[in-house]
Amino acid sequence: MKWKNRGGRSSLTELLEQLMTYDVISFDIFDTAIYRKVDMPNDVFSVMAMEMGHGDFVNVRKTAENVARERKEHTQGTREVSLAEIYDVMAEDYGIHKELMEREINLELELSTRNPYIYRLYLKLLENQKTILFTSDMYLPQKVIEKILEKNGYRRYEKLYLSNSLGLRKGNGTLQKVILKEYPDQKIIHIGDSLIGDVEQSRQAGLEALFHADAREIKAESQTDNMAGSIYRAVVNNCMYNGVWDKNIYYSHGFQTGGILTAGYCEYINQVAERKQIDKILFCARDCDIIRKVYNCYFKKYENEYIQISRYAAMGITLERYLYDWAERFIFRYIGPDSSKREADRTVAEVLEEAGTGYLIADLPDMGIDGNMPAGQVRRGLIKRFVFSHADRIRRHNEENVKAAVRYYKKVIGKSKRILVVDVGWSGTCITALKYFVDTRLAELSCEVSGALMCTTKSSVLKSYMERGVLSSYIYSPYHNRELLDFMISEELTEEELDYRHLALECLFTSAVGTLIQYGIEKDGSISFERAETEAENAAEILDMQEGILQFVKKYREYTYACGMDFKISPYTAFQPLLKACCNREDLCKIYARFRHDSLWLPYEKDRKGQTFGACFSK
After folding, report:
1. Mean pLDDT over residues 359-368, rounded?
2. Phi, psi of 485 (to 5 degrees)
3. What is the value of pTM for the model shown?
4. How do 418-423 and 448-453 pair as beta strands?
5. How far apart are CA 416 and CA 464, in angstroms?
6. By the number of CB atoms within 10 A of the CB, which of 117, 122, 166, 265 ranks highest?
7. Which 3 state secondary structure label does DSSP give 238?
8. Could you tell me which of 117, 122, 108, 112 has the C-alpha nearest to residue 241?
9. pLDDT tens for each residue of 199-229
């Protein structure tokens, strides 16, 4: 399924056909032929402000430009100024050294990138022997503009018309009149992103003109009005809304929604690791599959490993503590009159079999339970007494699982004395169960375990771990960014809406590999991993989404490197795209239609028909 391009542009073929009737084609430069790697022109000044430690530099730079224009108009009758004249004002009025002008020039050069739509059009026009011009109202020196064009592949053109070189402006039509004079008897068209300067003034001057809207589909918001947000918007707008984006909806969703969230979380992981003096980071399967890939490609500071784990498996190796929770999640919730709303139309025997406790079925009659009865017709309290009365047997059944896990995690931890276990959400069960396992079964290692989550619940158990400093969270928790927590987990939301919002995040970070059920030891002594399924039915869609996430981060890092520094990605900036996606239920359901609804999952289920995001929420 293709991504719907919202840019509203004609296809390149259609536009080229239209332009073939012209002899001379003039292109505007910035926001038409050339994009910046930041959202707005003033963001160039923001980068300089951070480098200088001058908090008011943006206002100073803008004011100095206005003053320079007023002085030029008063003395020479034109408002067109050069960058040197702007920096003369900055030196005289604000004591800012003129040498900084070179930094602005270098930044503009580094932050420039070509618009692929216009560039492809430009190449086709050259093939057809059209005369190409570039026309711009700009204070940068002509040689700098020439370098920017050359850097971005625009090396063949007849002439560059620049306002500060000629003392004339596109904005009032005087620059266009020069073009008309120098190309008499030629059919000319100018293409640009300003309805007034590029279109209206060109037409009034006698040139035909074509409006080419800039790519700013994603707008700045209060929560994202910062440099990380600026670069996020530049990446998404420049890549996805330029008119030539050809990726499917899964890749596009990963790129636009998951990329910035993953990048921000990777930054946060390093911050936690540094604060806790971590020796090794453990990324939990399956949700951290793409997170670890991104971390190792672009953020790696610590040794790390991707560990095979799941909630079911983690509880299975710690049943001496977590039997009650394990049984609640994988057996009890499917028993009793209210289980029908969870699609539990199984028999009692089927519930036990699919939970991995089929070996207990023969003992059901001893408690007066008919295994063939529908699970919804059996009292939950009766099943609880049955399970807890067989606690020792359940634990004995898991002894080989525990032995294999001991061997596996002993090798994973190695000589590390402080490990950070990373997961996406919600209550940190995998992290806290693994911590208990290491503290009890691997006590001789004297390894301190802590964890990082992307998001949390409001669980009182989780609060306890957070208060002790065992767990921390990036986006929100009961202790920070409560409005984000309330959006995702509010008492006013229905159970369906809660599931919908949680799954919107979980599906974003799912993996194509099946969920781990338990650990084992092969005859040769190697560790084996039993999984619920070998591969998701929609593996290709998941991999496309992961690739979108990875490629966004690659582009984001490229853009930040061009700025010469990193910018902290705040939780609000990182999470805002997902919040917006959650509010567009129709589109999100199309993207996630075939993604599994794993909150209603049993490890040995044979038929998961209907338990997809689309089946649950496309209503």
Report:
1. 95
2. -60, -45
3. 0.94
4. parallel
5. 25
6. 265
7. helix
8. 117
9. 999 999 999 999 999 999 999 888 889 999 9
Say if CB 211 and CB 49 are below 8 A apart: no
Q: Which amino acid is at 613?
A: F
Amino acid 227 reads M
The b/e string for 522-531 (b: 16+ C-beta within 10 A; e otherwise) is eeeeebebeb
Closest CA to 303 of 285, 279, 286: 279
Query: CA nearest 33: which of 105, 99, 117, 103?
Result: 117
| Per-residue b or e along 387-400, where b marks 16 or more CB atoms closer than 10 Å to that residue's CB | beebeeebeebbee
Cβ–Cβ < 8 Å for 63, 140: no
- Alpha-helical regions (H) of 341-379: 348-354
Residues 312 and 327: their CA atoms lie apart, in Å, by: 10
End-to-end CA distance of the chain: 20
Task: Identify the DSSP state of 374.
Answer: B
> What is the reported pLDDT for 598?
62
In tens, the pLDDT along 221-238 reads 888 899 999 999 999 999
Annotate 403-429 with b (16+ C-beta within 10 A) or e (fewer). Answer: ebbbebbeebbeebeebbbbbbbbbbb
Q: Which amino acid is at 503?
A: L
Burial 541-569 (b: 16+ CB within 10 A, else e): bbbbbbbbbbbbbebbbebbebbeeebeb
Spacing of C-alpha 255 from chain mean position: 6
Distance CA 10, CA 243 (A): 8
Residue 188: closest CA among 24, 20, 17? 24
List the structure tokens of 423: 């997961």
CB 351 within 8 A of CB 335: yes
Contact 202, 190 (CB under 8 A): yes
325 φ/ψ angles, rounded to the nearest 5 degrees = -75, -45
| Residue 529, φ and ψ in degrees, nearest 5 | -130, 115
Q: Give CA–CA dist 192/176, Å, rounded.
A: 13
Per-position DSSP letters for 426-473, written without gaps between them: SS-HHHHHHHHHHHHHTGGG--EEEEEESS----HHHHHHHHTTSEEE
- For residue 192, the surrounding DSSP H or E stretch is strand 188-192
Report pLDDT digits (tens) over 497-519: 888 888 899 999 999 888 899 99
User: CA-CA distance, 424 to 120, in Å (whole number)?
Assistant: 41
Quote the CA–CA distance of 423 and 431 in Å, as a whole number: 8
Three-class SS state of 525: coil
Sign of CA dihedral 598, 600, 605, 610: negative
Angle, CA 322 vertex, CA 280 and CA 512 arms, to 5°: 55
Q: At 483, which amino acid appears?
A: E
Q: Within 297-398, where are the H helices?
A: 311-316, 319-330, 348-354, 380-389, 391-397
List phi, psi (to 5°) of 294. -65, -45
CB-based contacts of 384, cutoff 8 Å, min separation 6: 327, 332
* Greatest Cα pair distance in the chain: 104
Q: What angle do CA 219, 221, 226 make, to 5 degrees?
A: 100
From residue 454, how far is each of 219, 263, 284, 291, 426 by CA, in Å? 25, 12, 12, 11, 8
**pLDDT of the residue at 1:** 43
